[in-house]
Design a protein that fits this description.
Elements lengths: L20 E4 L6 E4 L7 H17 L26
Antiparallel strand pairs: 1-2
Bound molecules: zinc ion (ZN).
């Protein structure tokens, strides 16, 4: 049974071979389903991206987001637990 929130799931990942893992978001600590190396849910990802875009437009440092892994740094991420 699925107990994650649809707005946090990466539904576009689900057709990938490893795209339906239960992951825990490092930001809101809630579970979501997505690619096994994802560590941020879609909801947080969207809001963080908005925030960082706003901040970079104004030239601010994104210091408060330093614990969030880079989107392109998947090779350094720890794999999440397999659903099955
Ligand atoms: Zn989240």
């Amino acid at each position: 049974m699925k107990d994650t929130k649809p707005e946090k799931d990466w539904q576009e990942d689900w057709h990938h071979e490893n795209g339906q893992y239960y992951c825990r978001c490092v930001h809101c600590k809630e579970q979501f389903i997505g690619y096994k190396r994802r560590v941020v849910c879609k909801e947080c990802h969207t809001s963080l991206e908005k925030a960082s875009t706003m901040m970079s437009d104004k030239g601010y440092e994104v210091g408060s987001l330093e614990d969030i892994p880079q989107r392109d740094g998947w090779d350094n991420w720890k794999p999440n637990k397999d659903i099955g």
